[in-house]
Amino acid sequence: MLENINSPEDLKKLNILEEQKLAEEIRKYILEIVAKNGGHLASNLGVVELTLALHNVFDFKKDKIVWDVGHQTYVHKILTGRREQLKTLRTLNGIAGFPKTNESPYDFFNTGHSSTSISAALGMARARDLKQENYSVLAVIGDGAMTGGMALEALNDVGYSKTKMTIILNDNEMSISPNIGGLNMLLSKLRTKKMYTRSNVIVKKRISKIPVIGKPIVKMVQTVKRSIKQLIIPKMFFEDIGFTYLGPVDGHNLEELQSILTLSKQIDNPVLIHVLTKKGKGYEIAEKNPDKFHATGPFDIETGKSKKEKGKDYSKVFGDKLVELAKENEKIVAITASMKDGTGLTAFSKAFPNRFFDIGIAEQHALGLAAGMAIDGMIPVVPIYSSFYQRAYDQVIHDIALQNLPVIMCVDRAGIVGADGETHQGTLDMAFFRLVPNLTILAPKDFQELKDMLAFAVELKKPVVIRYPRGGEDKEPFEKHEEIKEGKAEILKEGKDISIFTIGKTVARGIKIAKKLQNINVDAEVMNVRFLKPLDVATLKTSIEKTKKVITLEDGTIINGLGTAIKEMIIENHLEDIEMKAYAYPDEFIRHGSVEELEKIYHLDEAYIVEDIQRLMRLNVNEEHKNEEGIIDKHVEKLEEENTSHSQEESLMV
Ligand SMILES: Cc1ncc(C[n+]2csc(CCOP(=O)(O)OP(=O)(O)O)c2C)c(N)n1
Questions:
Q1: Tell me: the pLDDT tens digits for 463-506?
Q2: Sign (positive/negative) of CA torsion 255, 257, 260, 265?
Q3: Which of 529, 527, 530, 532 minimizes the C-alpha distance to 514?
Q4: 124 CA from centroid of ligand 1 (Å)
Q5: For residue 519, how many other CB atoms are within 10 A of its CB?
Q6: What's the CA-to-centroid distance between 646 and ligand 1, angstroms?
Q7: Which of 6, 276, 409, 614 is surrounded by the fewest CB atoms within 10 Å?
Q8: Mutate to test the pocket of ligand 1, among 44, 110, 114, 389 (most ligand atoms within 8 A of CB)
Q9: Are the folds of 2-193+233-288 and 493-653 the same?
Q10: Which residues make beta-bridge pairs with 382?
């Protein structure tokens, strides 16, 4: 069945039994691909019937759909001509894990971050009305994403505006972990409501067709039912704020789904369809562990076991150290925006349930809440992924930094994260945090340093940002761990020929580069800068004055990070005859691919930098060394041919 589906038109030719069979084939196909490539499994298995029904009832050649978060669009991609390409899911130059307008005309809006879909869909509907055009606009949003402030702001606007559009609320009772909050309480009451079925609509239609008395009877019955029901279950919430609420409907019953979607087309006001689905549907292991299979690496289908055993990572080290610190300091509290497991807070939530707060996918609120707790004596620790911290920027500035409150902002997944791609790459945080007065910004070189920095932050009594990457530390651990002192860098290797200034994850690379340079008699000084802010000007300046040559190395954008800080320092301190080069990601959005591939493409890998430093120092580039990396270099060259943009390397003579 699946082999014959090359566009939504092919789907429309199928009868209901064939569609059901197709649903099972799609599940199997997605399972096989995700087991091999990794990706978002449970959410996709949950929306198979919903996506089929949507493509059956609507015509997305003219109608438009916005998928919230966008992690559940694999079925949509399969149905819209990307079946074969899905095998390249999340790989370099392959299909993205999220909707991309440049990937298909059926992807109408890029998503990746939660809770944006209703605003975007309302925008499209308003544009449609202003242009006096006629098509349907839909937003598909999960119950988790509905807890985000932006979604609630948009609901408020849609309901009031009366704009014709449809919100599909895909309610599986789960965010990544079980969903939380007052809205979830409302939804669980609605879930117990009698399910929507085609038959109860048909009866209603029939009665209303009885001449003269039919419509009034239906209306009267509805009014009585409404007032009684309102007393028992608050189903009116959505209706009171301006929506026609339809549902709940069984999200795995194709006929009911198609019927309710068809019905919604006839309503000229905003409609909210409450669809009940099961995360992981059809793959028992994921049904039982929907949080584990929300997003997964490659795994064995039979057992569900990961192919690559997960080693210790920064999130876990952070979480364990926080438990240790919290045992000694009862002021420490932890806040998560729906990312308990991902940010390593599971152990904390078990050890200190009263001091742990999962507040929904609501990063702005997380930081506002932290500010309030801090002003009244607590020490809130808020781990959020780098790219999701973007959401809470004003709260960091206005609520925390401005009042100089002791909130510890842990920036997880900082730097390149790889396969999730441009919406999830954490390349901007150093740049945007550096602008903010009163912030102390640190990045650890390894696990031990993260622990030390966390302990330091608890004592600092000021707002602190600690950024650390996805995954584990470098294979070659550091032996040296100087005490963390405010604004002090750590000299890891002294040298006289060139200074290598580096921070966080890239410190290990700095050391390796220095070792390779040693082999060609270049004596590099390696500095673990530790504090992006306040910068250890005295130590860094002394190093530059000695070597007259400096490179900076960081896992972030070229703008306003370590490289910029050093350039500013050179100029402000009138350091003369200095040669400098900054290695960082360019001023662009970084696409998906493995971290290693992306580092090579952007010329941030060890081999390239070693060679480049030789050029910088006007030494002979060792061609043999280049050949050592043969395969990789060829790979890079191939990518370059494909018009790949290069790293931003800025040379400066001052
Ligand atoms: C702003 C933001 N914060 C956090 C996330 C991480 N995240 C991705 S999916 C997800 C849960 C979404 O739950 P729901 O909307 O119910 O969809 P489901 O996966 O259950 O289908 C979270 C927290 C995100 N994508 N964006």
A1: 999 999 999 999 988 999 999 999 999 999 999 999 999 999 99
A2: negative
A3: 527
A4: 23
A5: 10
A6: 32
A7: 6
A8: 114
A9: yes
A10: 409
In the predicted model, is pLDDT for residue 632 greater than 70? Answer: no
Q: Do the Cβ atoms of 517 and 548 come closer than 8 Å?
A: no
Which of 167, 361, 411 is the pocket-test mutation for ligand 1 (most atoms within 8 Å of CB)? 361
User: Where along the chain do its domains lie?
Assistant: 2-193+233-288, 314-467, 493-653
CATH class of domain segment(s) 314-467: alpha beta
* CA diameter of the chain: 99
Query: Is residue 638 pLDDT above 90, yes or no?
Result: no
CA–centroid distance for 284 within its chain = 26
* Amino acid at the residue 237: F
DSSP state of 273: E
476 in catalytic set: no
Q: Is the pLDDT of residue 319 over 90?
A: yes
Report pLDDT for 196.
83
Residue nearest to atom 25 of ligand 1 (CA): 113
Residue with tokens 């790219």: 387
Instruction: Report domain 2-193+233-288's class.
Output: alpha beta
Helix (H, G, I), strand (E, B) or coil at 115: coil
Structural contact between residues 450 and 444, judged by C-beta atoms closer than 8 angstroms: yes
* 43 alpha carbon – ligand 1 mean position (Å): 10
Beta-ladder partners of 272? 167, 245
Architecture of the CATH domain 493-653: 3-Layer(aba) Sandwich (3.40)
Query: What is the residue whose two structure tokens read 């190093």?
Result: 543
Q: Is-catalytic flag, 611?
A: no
